[in-house]
Amino acid sequence: LVVHFPVFDTNNIETKGTIDNAGRMYRYIKFDFYYSDLSKGSILVLKKENNLLEFFTKWGITISIVIILVSITAMFFLNQLLHRTIIKPLENLGQFMSELRGESLQSKTPALPANTAKEVQQLTANFESMRTTLLASIQEQQNLENNRKELVASISHDLKTPITSIIGYIEGLQEGIADTPAKQEKYLQTIHSKSIALNRLIEELFLYSKLDAEAVPFYFERIQLEKFLVHMSEEFQLDNRDVQFQISVREDIYASIDRMQMNRAINNLFENSLKFKKTDEPLCITLEVTANADMLEIHVMDNGQGIAESQLPYVFDHFYRGEAARTFTTGGSGLGLA
Known about the structure:
Layout: E1 15-21, E2 24-34, E3 40-48, H1 51-98, H2 118-174, H3 181-212, E4 220-224, H4 225-239, E5 244-248, E6 254-258, H5 259-275, E7 284-292, E8 295-302
Parallel strand pairs: 5-7
Antiparallel strand pairs: 1-2, 2-3, 4-6, 7-8
């Protein structure tokens, strides 16, 4: 039954190996010897080989070749998949990032294919968020720069007017135009009033700059709002007896405020009401307080001229007083509401 019987060899007393016996693999131990008549003799002990080992022994080379081919194919497929879902999108994103400058920030991040890796999609989303934030920051910086230029222009305009008047009246005094004590007194009073207006403008501008830079400290205290508003209105009436107040505030309403700064803010509204009141009827200012969750709203209303609807979006801009009101006849600098 042995197809490939091991070669007779008396040099080795014991020989081991593997043989194919009728298509089945066996491990063997063989002893070779000579009989007394010098004929050859052998003793062969066979043991059936393990099926798995037998399989690899017969098909090992074929399996190795198949594994190598499958590995090469898998590596090629994986490389293509990585290139399509990760490497290529990252290359496109990198190129887009390198081209971002100036106006190109307006361009949105290129859309990704649907099969792009989740990590690359997250990275692209984060970059798009960063681009949007950067664009908003640049636009805000540009707006601040425009506001700064506008502020400088407005300051120049508002400072030049009283300074020009002061110079004119001083030159009038020097050249003897005011040739009587009455005229001289009038010139000096005008110079004094213009100087006060100029000093007030500088003080308001200084305060505005400190507020804009958040350099003004606030000292908050808990106060009864009704008493505070009544006290403010009475103080204002001392200098303006023809102004009437109507105050609608519950006694049990308290607020945490900076008394001095709140006084400045509300007084600014009172002064505006007085400047632009109607000439044919007494000024009436109404104060109302409404509670909304943890906030309080103070409504200041009057029966004056009102503000044109076209000017409403600009009333809190610095130096804005409306084209018709940009004079010193009504006083003020246009910084109060700002």
